[in-house]
Amino acid sequence: MKCRLCGKKPVIYMPHHRLALCREHFDSWFLKHLERTVKEFRMFSKDDGILVAVSGGKDSLALWDALLRLGYRADGFYLDLGIGDYSKRSREAVERFAGERGAKLIIRSLSEELGGIPLLVERTGRESCSVCGSVKRYFFNKVAKDHRYAVVVTGHNLDDEASSLLGNLLSWNLKYLGRKHPVLPQEGGFVRKAKPLCRFTEKETALYCLLRGIDYVEEECPFSEGATSIFYKEILNRIEERSPGTKMRFYLEYVRKVLPLFGQDSKESLGRCRVCGEPSPSEVCTFCSLRERVLNFIGTGRSSTG
Ligand code: FES
Ligand code: ZN
Ligand code: ZN
């Protein structure tokens, strides 16, 4: 096999694109493919202030790096979730990345403001991923608005999007299915959100990091062990092995053909949280009710060091 563009030894073969590329051409393909995705879905422009939600993992750091190289005004936001060594290492990776590039990085610490994820899970009895999802959503939106960014971007890749689509389809979760678009507009107190890596597999983002010398945290969040999403990814990978291109088609054809059928009906009409003023389907938003529960817990004298 040879690089399609120059005939040199390839570093990757992407069966879903029927494309083999050498190191140099993979790098330029990655940037071009990213820019095409941003334009095709009208995610943002070079004039927009972009807040990249970075976790320290390969996807978000690859995304931030590539956006900077393409000349976008991309700053980073890291939310320290207080998950022991995992958070410590990922925070270091993000700080190192930003320092090396002189890029602007905003950091907030969940442990300082409310209590880390393990503590919140213990005190609310809710599942870690759902608590984590709620606090991330809250902070991404709040920080982007407070600092006047036009859009928040996350590093969700094709494997993430296809597996969560599969999960939502299996339970016919219409609320989430109706919001599976790679870009969600600014509305009802939410800033615009985009997933520019939605057409890249995790193998591609990992290779991009490797070739660019980006030092990312390889370990997954300890709470993700045994997660259903990982199981769905494995299933989709098996299907992909048998018929390359299925994963991409599954996701993109859903976005193109099925999502438009949802129309306006799928949009939740949200009120405002009476405590913090952020958009919320209930009187008090999830974040504020988490906070109330943590404070009540401390109020009953059952405080722990968590
Ligand atoms: Fe959110 Fe692991 S990153 S629970
Ligand atoms: Zn080449
Ligand atoms: Zn609130």
Topology diagram in text:
Layout: E1 12-14, E2 19-21, H1 23-40, E3 49-53, H2 58-69, E4 73-80, H3 84-101, E5 105-109, H4 110-113, H5 117-124, H6 128-146, E6 151-153, H7 158-170, H8 174-177, E7 183-184, E8 192-194, H9 202-212, H10 228-242, H11 246-262, E9 271-272, E10 279-280, H12 286-299
Parallel strand pairs: 3-4, 3-6, 4-5, 6-8
Antiparallel strand pairs: 1-2, 7-8, 9-10
Helix pairs in contact: 2-9, 7-10, 7-11
How does this structure look, described?
Helix 2 packs across helix 9 and helix 7 crosses helix 10. 50% of the residues lie in helices and 12% in strands. The chain is α/β, with parallel strands linked by helices and 306 residues long. Mean pLDDT is 93; it is low at 302-306. The chain has a single domain (42-217, 226-271), classed as HUPs (Rossmann fold, 3-Layer(aba) Sandwich), CATH 3.40.50.620. The relative contact order is 0.14. The strands form three sheets. The chain has a six-stranded mixed β-sheet, sandwiched between helices. The protein starts with 11 loop residues before the first strand and ends in a 7-residue tail after the last helix. The structure holds FE2/S2 (inorganic) cluster (FES) and zinc ion (2 copies). One zinc ion is lined by residues 273, 275-276, 278, 284-285, 287-288. Residues 117, 128-129, 132, 221, 223-224 line the site of FE2/S2 (inorganic) cluster.
